[in-house]
Amino acid sequence: MTTDAAYFERPATVTATESKRPWKQGVSIGGRDLRLDLFRGLANWAIFLDHVPNNAIAWLTTRNYGFSDAADVFVFISGYTAAFVYARRMAMQGRLAGTALLIRRVWQLYVAHILLFVFYAAAIGYIAQDYGHSHLLDEFNVAGLIERPVATLTHGLLLNFKPLNLDVLPLYIVLMAGFAPLLMLMMRAPDAALAAATIVYGLARYFGWNLPAHPSGDWYFNPFTWQLLFTIGAWAALGGAARAQAWTRSRAVLIASVVVLIFAFVVTIGARLGVSTLSPAFDVFSEKTNLAPFRIVHFLALAVIVVRLIPRSWNGLRSKLVRPVLVCGQRSLEVFCIGIFLSFVGHFILEMYSDRLVTQIGVSVGGVALMTAVAFYRTWSRTLDAPKSMPSVAPPTIGRE
Fold first, then answer.
1. What pLDDT score does 47 carry?
2. For 128-141, how does the pLDDT look when each residue is reduced to its tens digit (9 = 90+)?
């Protein structure tokens, strides 16, 4: 399976021309930026923990302390990796070949989503019927599969019917499906491409553009607005981060970023604790469907601080303790899918058997351990496909009789 995990960061010695078109200059970039693996792995873990209802361990995730959360991290890094990988493919093999490879990746994502959709819906239906928990059908938005199976399944294949928690992957599929023309523009004029994405974002928020959902409403993650964060990631990969490095490392930007994080922390904690005067502000600042501007500002402020605190050369990125997170980031698609399924299993365990803190800890640790095991297995299984040199064997000889 083709993966978009081969992503890198610009070295300090890159020239101005190389910074603008790193995929075309053949720049020696000196190895993988493990920070991207680290944070995509953490994002996958956080998505799982956040999707288990009434889970105290989810208080460890960033959504409880600011306006952005793991979904923002996932989309940004997905844009970064997609741009760097497929820009190189287009430069080396041509635009047609690069676009074909992008479409192949979209197909892989679509197949993964359909398989997850089928197993997820089947598991919910089985538990709801055999254990007498019919409320799960409505809670997880799969009642339509029982009442109108053909129509609902058709809309599921078209991505406009989604059970609860199955929203991120369809967003990723749509963003990747429309990425080829944007990437071609970004390879020539990255700032113009980012400006175009910003205009689409503003128009979508102003005119209420979104895709319809079945049986009613719109997509929970509006692709017309979330494409901006995806594009920002792509822009950063194709030289934007290198060009903005002096600006992002300035003292003024650092202070502004800290102020943003403190403000977001106060508002979010106040809303979580039920402070009535802060809850309306939190709802506006963290609005998810249309990607509130404050979410983007908060995410970028967080990124500025994280990049300063964790340099690319940090030795901790190569420690054994961090390796499970890195592997989960490198095998992101498989880990994401198993995490979504395990979130329902965790929900079922907490509702059916016990919701005590010790059970919540067990569900959370067990789920993360299973996700990590899947990641290590997929990493190991891929090594089996690599050709290995076989020992030379002399041809048999026919002896004389």
1. 97
2. 887 777 888 888 99
